UniProtKB/TrEMBL annotation:
Its cofactor is thiamine diphosphate. One of its GO terms (molecular function) is pyruvate dehydrogenase (acetyl-transferring) activity. Keywords: Oxidoreductase, Pyruvate, Thiamine pyrophosphate. GO terms for biological process: branched-chain amino acid catabolic process. This is Pyruvate dehydrogenase E1 component subunit alpha. The pyruvate dehydrogenase complex catalyzes the overall conversion of pyruvate to acetyl-CoA and CO(2). It contains multiple copies of three enzymatic components: pyruvate dehydrogenase (E1), dihydrolipoamide acetyltransferase (E2) and lipoamide dehydrogenase (E3). SUPFAM superfamilies: Thiamin diphosphate-binding fold (THDP-binding) (SSF52518). It comes from Allomeiothermus silvanus (strain ATCC 700542 / DSM 9946 / NBRC 106475 / NCIMB 13440 / VI-R2) (Thermus silvanus). Its EC number is 1.2.4.1. Residues 34-319 form the Dehydrogenase E1 component domain. It holds the Pfam family E1_dh.
Length: 346
């Protein structure tokens, strides 16, 4: 079963019809989109300078993340995989904390109080059952929060993904499952991962809505996510939202994508760039120009430099902190390692 793809913008940014949001809202959305792009560009530079660890860039996938985050309330929860830095920044994670996280500094693991984001999940798909647990916990305690859980197309081949969807559908958990279908599970193309053409078609097997959006169209992602969030909050249960996008950048800063794909493949998607597409939409509407763009970039660079200075002022982490905050209470092996490190390195 194929699912129609929702889109509001042509590849060149021209609206296909009436847009669901007023210009002032679209402007705020573009700022979040451009802010994410700016961070990603600078993060790769910092990584090459030895100021970040291995970093998973998200260039080309900004709209698929930012659009969902914009649809959430601050009281809602965001459960990311390792590539959802754009979503996390949009949902309130400070830039300085984000920098420290990708430095593997324990200070970056401690998200500020009130920022409802679980840590970036590195193991594939393990976040999905846990996201459902967060949603069910809120439901059990009478909270009205919704959980947005992200995963890549490759992750949908994992058992945790299907277990999480089944549990959520049976119990009506208020979750929006966001699949960023970027065409690649590291080096394995989507068509070699699954027989179905669209991940969203699998929603039928769980009795939940499956929605496909143009993941490079911020307006479409935002609108689809908004409807899914409203449905979950009103008791309508989960939605499987598939955003069709493309990973322009390498899998991580240690990857060489030239080993498994051609530059011609990437060039096709560069012409659908979500940031430029949204900018051209605003220009078409007459609410954006080069002067405003330059001012925004200057503002974003000032913000990032201030955050970088803040991160650089963070004290050097103690060696024993590596075994802290893993469990609520240390197990015997952790305790022994912690005491050994403290005794030998003070």
């Amino acid at each position: 079963m194929d699912v129609d793809t929702l889109r509001y913008l042509q590849d060149d940014g021209t609206p296909l019809g009436e847009l669901p949001f007023p210009p002032e809202k679209l402007l705020s959305g573009y700022r979040a989109l451009r802010r994410a792009r700016h961070f990603d560009e600078r993060a790769l530079v910092l990584q090459r300078q030895g100021k970040l660890g291995v970093y998973p860039p998200f260039r080309g996938q900004e709209a698929a993340q930012v659009g969902v985050a914009l649809a959430l309330e601050k009281t809602d929860w965001l459960v990311p995989s390792y590539r959802e830095t754009a979503a996390a920044l949009t949902h309130g994670l400070p830039i300085a904390t984000t920098i420290l996280y990708w430095r593997a500094d324990p200070s970056g693991w401690r998200f500020p109080e009130g920022v409802r984001i679980l840590p970036f999940y590195i193991p594939i798909a393990t976040q999905i059952p846990q996201a459902v647990g967060v949603a069910q916990a809120g439901k059990y305690h009478g909270e009205n929060w919704v959980v947005a859980a992200f995963i890549g197309d490759g992750g949908t081949s994992e058992g945790d993904f299907h277990e999480g969807l089944n549990f959520a559908s049976v119990f009506g958990a208020p979750v929006v499952f966001v699949v960023q279908n970027n065409g690649w599970a590291i080096s394995v193309p989507t068509e070699k991962q699954m027989k179905v053409r669209r991940v969203a078609s699998r929603a039928q097997g769980y009795g939940i809505p499956g929605v496909v959006v143009d993941g490079n169209d911020l307006v479409a992602v935002w609108k689809a996510a908004q409807e899914a969030v409203e449905r979950a909050r009103s008791g309508g249960g989960p939605t499987l939202l598939e955003a069709l996008t493309y990973r322009i950048a390498p899998h991580t800063s240690s990857d060489d994508p030239g080993r498994y794909r051609t530059e011609e493949q990437t060039e096709v998607w560069k012409r659908k760039d979500p940031v430029m597409r949204m900018r051209r939409c605003l220009e078409y509407l007459g609410v954006w120009d080069e002067q405003r763009e330059s001012a925004l970039v200057e503002e974003l660079e000032t913000e990032l430099l201030a955050a970088l200075e803040e991160a650089d002022r963070s004290p050097e982490p103690a060696p024993w902190s590596i075994v802290e905050e893993v469990f609520a209470e240390m197990n015997p092996d952790q305790r022994a390692a912690w005491e050994y490190l403290q005794g030998g390195m003070r």
